[in-house]
């Protein structure tokens, strides 16, 4: 549940930032606030993602995006993982998510 809920919240902020609807400063402030709230969640692997779990997931996904970009030399990002998950048209699982992150992290 954390992956789906985290992606929804992550992209709600990303779309606002990428479209220019919020400034980079406002985006960073929102990220900081989510990181603080996420400290209330000791783990992500829970049956139902609540507010703190989702907030923590956003930070984890942001870090994963940075790692994918760095490891792939900028050829891939979390966007590619999200597209692949959507194309699967099935339940989102941690093993499938991990597989896609590893695949996208490979250098071209």
Description of the structure:
The protein is mostly helical. It is built from five helices and no strands. It is globular.
Structural class: mainly alpha
Tell me the major beta sheet.
none
Q: What's the pLDDT, averaged over the residues?
A: 94
Shape: globular
Provide the gyration radius in Å: 14 Å
Helix proportion range: over 70%
How would you describe this structure in keywords?
mainly alpha
Task: Please describe the topology of this protein.
Blueprint: H1 2-18, H2 24-38, H3 51-71, H4 78-88, H5 94-105
Helix pairs in contact: 1-2, 1-3, 2-3, 3-5, 4-5
Structure described in brief:
This protein is mainly alpha-helical and 108 residues long. The chain has helices at 2-18, 24-38, 51-71, 78-88, 94-105. It contains 5 helices and no strands.
